[in-house]
Amino acid sequence: MSKSPTVCEHCRVVSEKKFGGLSGAVFVAAAALIFAPRSSAQFGATSSGSGTSGSVISALGNRNQYSWTESFDGSANSDGQVMALDSSVGYSFGSHTLVTTGLPVYFVHATIVSATGTSATNSFTALGDFHGLVQLSFPGPVINFKTQLTGTAPTGSTSDGISTGHATFDWTNRWDRGMNQWTPFFEIGLANSLPDTFIYRRPFASFGMLSHFQAGTEYQVLDWLGVAVSGFDVAPWGSQTIESRVAGKGAGSSGGHGPPFNNGQKITGGSSLTADNGFATEVDLSPGKADFTLGYSRSTHYSLNIFSFGLTVNMRDLLRRSSL
User: Fold this and answer.
1) Which of 122, 145, 152, 226 has the fewest C-beta atoms under 10 angstroms from its C-beta?
2) Mean per-residue pLDDT for 106-111?
3) SS3 per-residue string spanning 39-96
4) Domain containing 178 — which CATH number?
């Protein structure tokens, strides 16, 4: 299954009616990628979306090799849409170790509603934080274990809510076991920022200590079709700061209605700012062209219904095959 990673409901209709002109144009580009030849699209990339199958990816094969992946993903709810095109390069040391670095470009479209009821559109494109990760995979006869350390440098804009302005880290550990077509899994992570692609693409960037948990199961229906369901929880502690991506630059309070990221561009407070819990579902399609995921998640803490998508293409393998 795709990672953390993974908008459905007839993507063309959503992009035209709900996503606006900017997002609609990006969706056209994503659709074009689907028809590129498939080449182990998940290798060396963490695609984003619902993330039901986990934020830790596999290092495939037993040989040392470079990787280059392009992933495009996004999430939409009633407050707006946040999408990102992430370019990553890396190196796999055998079957156990993977190192990658990348830089995302964000596409944000949101409608801002003030306390007086007036609305305005907030749309922009911006570079995100430079990121790097080291992942170790340890397959076992009973339990498979993966551990991944991810770090970011504050290269993105804080005024747009793309970055917190701080260096961040996330250490995630995953245990799973394959039983015929079923793969139950459990993840636990420690971070000083809520991972941007944990379950869904976040409408804000956060800074503050927290743990995140996810448990569920995957089911491989066919060679090219898989599904997953999971429950998740985010447990922060201490002071938390969020930089909203949907409230707009210089936005003040909207009267305290709705999720905190709608009530101002920058808010500092207690653990409830970034606390979250709910459930997620995901469908993973690998029809021989690319790896494409569709997801739905329900945030009970924020009372949000989120639709997500993810598309990942292994550019290294694609170019290698096209040159043959």
Assistant:
1) 145
2) 89
3) CCCCCCCCCCCCCCCCCCCCCCCCCCEEEEEEEEEEEEECCEEEEEEEEEEEEEECCC
4) 2.40.160.40
Chain centroid offset of residue 239 CA = 24
Distances from the Cα of 231 to the Cα of 24, 52, 98, 165, 186, angstroms: 31, 8, 27, 30, 10
- For the record, the structure tokens of 137 come out as 């995979």
Total tally of structural domains belonging to the chain: 1
Task: Indicate whether 4 belongs to any domain.
Answer: no
Q: Degrees (nearest 5) of the Cα angle 274, 209, 176?
A: 85
d(CA 164, CA 53): 27
d(CA 151, CA 101): 9
Task: Look at residue 132 and tell me if it is in a domain.
Answer: yes
3-state secondary structure string, 300-324? CCCCEEEEEEEEEEEHHHHHHHHCC
Question: Structure tokens of 208?
Answer: 């503050």
List % helix, strand, coil for the chain (3-state, nearest 5). Answer: 10, 50, 40
Alpha helices in the chain (DSSP H): 11-17, 20-34, 315-322
pTM for this prediction: 0.79
Q: Does the residue 168 lie in any domain?
A: yes
Report the alpha-carbon distance of residue 288 to residue 4 in Å, rounded: 21
* Arithmetic mean of pLDDT, 276-296: 91
pLDDT at 35: 35
Widest Cα–Cα separation across the chain? 62
Between 60-69, 123-132, 190-199, the lowest mean confidence (pLDDT) is in 60-69
A 10 A CB-CB count for 69 gives 29
Per-residue pLDDT at 8: 36
Question: Which residues constitute the domain of residue 196?
Answer: 11-322
Cα(192)–Cα(165) distance, rounded to whole angstroms?
13
Give dist(CA 309, CA 260) in Å, integer. Answer: 24
Of 272, 251, 73, the C-alpha closest to 160 is: 251
Q: Is residue 314 part of a domain?
A: yes
Place of tokens 């993973």: 284
